[in-house]
Amino acid sequence: MAEITIRPITYKDTDDIVRWRNSEYVNSRFIDRRMFTKESHEAWLKNFVETGKVTQFIILLDGVGVGSVYLRDINHDKKDAEFGIFIGEESARGKGVGTKAAEIILDYAFRGLKLDKVFLRVYKDNPGAIRSYEKAGFKMTDGIEKINDNGVIREVIFMELEKKDFEKR
Question: Can you give the pTM of this predicted structure?
């Protein structure tokens, strides 16, 4: 059985993050489609990760980086944050890596950061991600947003997980 762990992101991960996020597979699944550069990623680390607005980790499969998982817009007053994840290495997809990484960071969100709710947005036409999120405990909410994705209208659904539901698992 493969070992799936996470570790805090560092500046040394920049080349992998840029390569992964700019790949067609990963980029097409993100609502924000801006292309990453070394400079933009390092600015993200400085302005968001280092300031605590985002907590981001590298997903490791048997000690090798394969993607990233993060909590953004962390709001300690409302006790919530938005969840995000991507598996950058094709060889690691479809093996439960994302689900396990989600479970690890959700434990950190609820026990470490003392949050009450974690939420996410996902394209409705991404059933693999939705299944993974459901396996990690997320449930769909009533919200649906329509986004113009380069001339194509796509639906974005909202999912959330509350601490009380996570603790029941």
Answer: 0.90
Give 154's strand partners: 147
CA pair distance 157, 136, nearest whole angstrom: 16
* Direct distance between the N- and C-terminal alpha carbons of the chain, in angstroms, rounded to an integer: 22
How far apart are alpha carbons 16 and 29 in whole angstroms?
18
Which CATH number covers residue 23?
A: 3.40.630.30
pLDDT in tens, 116-137: 999 999 989 888 889 999 999 9
Query: Among 84, 78, 141, which residue's Cα sits nearest to residue 113?
Result: 78
Q: Sign of dihedral through CA atoms 110, 113, 119, 120?
A: negative
Q: How many domains does the chain have?
A: 1
Domain extent for 162: 4-168
